[in-house]
Design goal:
Belongs to the peptidase M24B family. The protein is an alpha+beta fold. It has 18 helices and 23 strands. Helix content is about 35%, strand content about 15%. α15 packs antiparallel against α16.
Length: about 600
């Protein structure tokens, strides 16, 4: 397979040389025309050409080199998947792609790009970097990767689902009315929306036309020339003379270069999408649904952990979830029933599928044993995944889509005897997890400021992790939702946290070739009951809505403060009381044992 991909590079370079004008480099992004994080099979061009399967990254092919940029979640995975023809470029450590091109390619070099798969922001950043050497970002009329992808998968139509108002909390007509009011306020005549989770779906009943992909560029051109009826035509607040002089609103972080190129720069209003913040700030119906969905989801996770505990003991002679007696298990499978990362994650999906309003997984389950758990976004495949091992840490990051909410939870467990080092690392991650959960902070605080709270306990031990601490989560929408996040990345400074936003709390630690640890809950941002209100700012705090126990035998309680021990015990007590009604007697007994109070070790 690696040899075949290396031959593809030769084919791509031949097309680059034959192109008019000849291309000195080709940029192959991960995104599709909607700048989606998770793309369809036919849009996985970067994966096809490089062999790297992570969800984030960018490939650059020159006449002599092939380079792949990705973030810290995928460094280890990329080193395992890239052939010797590729060079890994580590985001945050190596120069970004535009700087590398400007420094390493010749004057007046031509760099090809599929304009549908790059945002306006990225394109303008590239063009600025290229300007010092008069290099050109060239918009390709066809994607060169598609030309060498002979067995490219066909388009897979998926059904469009109308989200009932009983779960959404607001009707589409209300949302469109509010959107048009924002257009009027900003003196914009129209808005171009390209992100898939921002497309309104009630069709004709709400005055929405569905158009073919092939017509969207011409429609954008008609909109720019005033020949297409705009969103605010006929609004009482704007007269006919004003409409022609109004702007067309785009979000430069999600609008693709192909559509932007059909507009005149002086008629473009570049602002964050007016849909992003209302989507992130949940209404009361959405918050209620999210709480309920996480309770049912927590019950499924507990059922899974209880089942897996029993299976590891029966099939592998493991000491189990609660015990850590050395020598209590054998490494070999003693009953012949093989448990793999995929087979056990399928069982978890089975538990979830029995829950009310279940509609599928929110992302592919990260079910990872031992060294695989150190691959931050590991994706097990049935034919290559590892067998479960009682001697190694098991990390499971999973989630589901329910009509009333989206879930995302990570728990890390050990069914044998964890080492003191593993316990110490787990406890440091838990301390960071608790630190964010109990944070109180003034209105206007961004996730960039909060990120250090989760890292500080790890830093004290000389540890860290290469991913953000938290992301927004949708309401029956994307599991990774912006515009806010909790991270060290500069983009986390852009949007302050607000009451009724959701965000995950997921610090971790990963030791290449050995193990990985991550703990994740979903939090709701709420008004804090602070004693004072300095500066009349108002203060915020968090409410956790994820329910599943932390494994006591992985916690070194000597490293916890009294406040942290009280937090664990309170959480476990609440977890038990909330989930017991959804469990059978055997599962209840398992949960009672898993949530017994922890105390400082002697």
């Amino acid at each position: 397979m690696a040899a075949a991909r290396d031959q593809l590079l030769d084919a791509i370079r031949a097309l680059m040389a034959a192109h008019s004008p000849p291309l000195h480099a080709l940029v192959v992004p991960s995104e599709d025309a909607h700048q989606s994080e998770y793309v369809s099979e036919q849009d996985k061009r970067r994966e096809f050409i490089s062999g790297f399967t992570g969800s984030a990254g960018l490939a650059l092919i020159t006449m002599k080199e092939a380079l792949l940029w990705t973030d810290g979640r995928y460094f280890l995975q990329a080193t395992q998947q890239l052939s010797n023809c590729w060079k890994l470029m580590r985001m945050g450590e190596d120069p970004p792609v535009e700087a590398w091109i400007a420094d390493n390619l010749e004057d007046e070099a031509v760099i090809g790009i599929n304009p549908w798969c790059i945002s306006v922001d990225s394109a303008q950043r590239y063009e600025h970097a290229f300007s010092k050497k008069h290099q050109t970002l060239f918009q390709l009329s066809s994607d060169l990767v598609d030309e060498v992808w002979k067995d490219r998968p066909p388009v897979e139509p998926r059904p469009v689902i109308v989200h009932p108002v009983e779960f959404a909390g607001r009707s589409v007509s209300e949302k469109i009315k509010e959107l048009r009011e924002k257009l009027v306020h900003e003196k914009a005549s129209a808005i171009i929306i390209t992100a898939l989770d921002e497309v309104q779906k009630y069709m004709a009943g709400n005055g929405i036309d569905i158009r073919e992909y092939e017509t969207v560029q011409s429609d954008a051109n008609l909109l720019a020339t005033g020949k297409l009826k705009s969103s605010v035509d006929g609004e009482n607040d704007i007269n006919d003379n004003e409409v022609g002089s109004l702007k067309i609103w785009i979000d430069s972080g999600s609008c693709c270069l192909a559509l932007y190129s059909k507009l005149s720069p002086d008629q473009v209003l570049t602002l964050q999408s007016p849909i992003a913040l209302p989507k992130a700030v949940k209404n009361p119906t959405e918050l209620d649904g999210l709480r309920k969905a996480h309770i049912r989801d927590g019950a499924a996770v507990v059922q899974y952990l209880a089942w897996l505990d029993n299976q590891m003991q029966e099939n592998y002679g493991a000491s189990g979830y609660f015990n850590e007696i050395r020598g209590a298990h054998k490494k070999e499978n003693i009953k012949g029933t093989k448990l793999t990362e995929v087979s056990v994650s399928d069982k978890l999906e089975g538990f979830r599928s029995t829950k009310e309003h279940f509609r599928g997984l929110s992302f592919p389950t990260i079910s990872s044993v031992g060294p695989n758990a150190a691959v931050i976004h590991y994706k097990p495949e049935a034919n290559t995944c590892s067998e479960m091992d009682a001697d190694k840490i098991y990390l499971c990051d999973s989630g589901a889509q329910y009509l009333d909410g989206t879930t995302d939870i990570t728990r890390t467990v050990h069914f044998g005897k964890p080492s003191e080092h593993e316990k110490s690392c787990y406890t440091a991650v838990l301390k960071g997890h608790i630190a964010l959960d109990i944070a109180v902070f003034p209105n206007g605080t961004t996730g960039h400021s909060l990120d250090i709270l989760s890292r500080a306990p790890l830093w004290r031990e000389g540890l860290d992790y290469r991913h953000g601490t938290g992301h927004g989560i949708g309401s029956y929408l994307n599991v990774h939702e912006g515009p806010h996040l909790i991270s060290f990345r500069p983009s986390a400074r852009n949007v302050p946290l607000q009451a009724s936003m959701t965000v995950t709390d997921e610090p971790g630690y990963y030791e290449d070739g050995s193990f990985g640890i991550r703990l994740e809950n979903v939090l709701i941002c709420k008004e804090a009951n602070a004693k004072f209100n300095f500066g009349e700012k108002g203060y915020l705090s968090f409410e956790h809505i994820t329910w599943a126990p932390y494994q006591a035998k992985l916690i070194d309680t000597k490293l916890l403060t009294p406040v942290e021990i009280e937090w664990v015990n309170t959480y476990h007590s609440d977890c038990r009381n909330i989930l017991e009604p959804y469990l059978n007697e055997q599962e209840k007994e398992w949960l009672r044992k898993a949530t017994e109070p922890v105390a400082v070790s002697s």
